[in-house]
Amino acid sequence: xxxxxxxLNIALALAYFxxxxxxxxxxxxxxxxxxIVFNGMVLRHLENEKAFNPVHYxxxxxxxxxxxxxxxxxxxxxxxxxxxxxxxxxxxxxxxxTLFVLSIMLHLLLLFRKQY
Length: 116
Known about the structure:
The protein is mainly alpha-helical. It contains 4 helices and no strands. It has one domain (about 1-115).
């Protein structure tokens, strides 16, 4: 399940980047890169069955912060869409963001549950 979620997170990160962050500021792009690197490290960790080191925990924390950031961002877009009655373009964005956030959080939950 963790491998599937890692691959899903990498695919969603790339889709999110190409769909919405291509012309964005550098901080969200760095966060997407952190998600990709962390999930790549988890895949390597699962294949080699090595213990986590502090870098894994720092990247996991940054993934969690990014997921919270995306949740707040999506909430504001949802709120704005409701106020202006405009769901044409925001529906796809909200769906992708919700799936991405849930995938990151479930991945982190299962990963730390496996570790302890």
